[in-house]
Target: histidine kinase
Amino acid sequence: MSELSRKAEGGGATAAGAAARWAAARWATVLNAGGDAASTVANGPWTPLGMLKSSLTWRSAVYLAAGLAFGLGWLVVLVVGLVASVSLLIIWVGLPLLALLMVAWRFGAVLERQLVRAAFGVRIPSPYRPLPEGRNPLLKLRSMAADPATWKDLVYLLALFPITLLEFVVSTVVWAGSAMLLFMPVIVAGDGTGAEVSAGFVSYWAGNPIEALPISLMGLFGLVVAMYVTRVMAIAHSAFAGLMLGPSPAQKENVELRKRTEHLRASRARGVDAAEFERRRIERDLHDGAQQRLLAVAMDIGRARAKLEEDPEGARALIEQAHAGTKEAISELRDLARGIYPAILTDRGLDPALSGLAGRAPVPVEVDVDLPERPPAAVESIAYFIVAESLANIAKYARATRASVRVVREDRWVVVEVIDNGVGGASARPGGGLAGLADRAATIDGMLIVDSPPGGPTIIRADLPCTW
Model:
């Protein structure tokens, strides 16, 4: 009998979980505008043991049981305040009273967002428009009255009492009823007269504690069902709160678009600054390097021409010196050009170019490039310089004995990873080389992640958007 009871209980819990998940999905679909809030709650554990251990279950249960007082309080305040304000509008006293009430219910909505966050772990962003600057309270009140979010707050607080009343009744019935069934053997033992449990046309009489054990198993199953009911009501409540107290879909899109625009504007500005810095570096390298060598070559050739008839051997030595200087200038120009955009990257692609970098590194570097085809030139260039700067940092600071470079495609991204077994501690400090790489990646809406705990290993990862 006990084995069958356990199987029935397990099957019932599974069925209850499936039903609860179906109901949660339906609620999230119906209240799509509040789906962000609902999904946060729905992503919690759904197994009976997981819900039993999760604080979300018990925080939700406390809120659903105690929220009735909050809803009733705001219903009384708002109804009395609105009636008094409208009644006193004739003598103009109602207008400041209504303004004060509006400020109060906006504060109540802010408090409710905090309570929902504490109970369900759901953060509801503020939907309000910015208030006018200055100290004029009339302008601020007019802006608040013209904000649709203010009136959504009012509707939510007025609807809060019937919603919390329903939640309180359901919570009380399922939790208290299940607890009473669970402790039925104790009740029967204390009463001494037995107890009867009826459900529709089915009834069960328990005359002693042993006969009451099946009822106790029903109570245990009821507690499992109560946890699922609590979770579904928490999803419904958080979805409704997200719908009424959070920003509308249009506001969310505007906020995201504004953030993205600001991010792109900042990244473009950093890209322009990086390009200007690079131009000055090239100018400085040309002035201090190749230009000085070519000037020395010109002077040597001029001196050789003057000595050509009188001192042929001296002229020959000057020509040899000019020839060596020319070769050095060509080498410096080649290195400078490689720093701008290496020819091997243009001619043969990323794999040979990175292999060339690895071959010049002071530590063994394993290179793995797995791309279905060549990415755009901008992506190739940024990937190349990320690897070049990372390997240069490894040579200077990491004290590593080996490193690896991996370039793969993941969905619509080209992922570049450089890993070394050095001492770690690297970070993208403002003005540093890694910060410059992050700015390079940001110019094409990519990102750079530096993971370098003290003691290593160091992982430099860049995600670069790419469409073939």
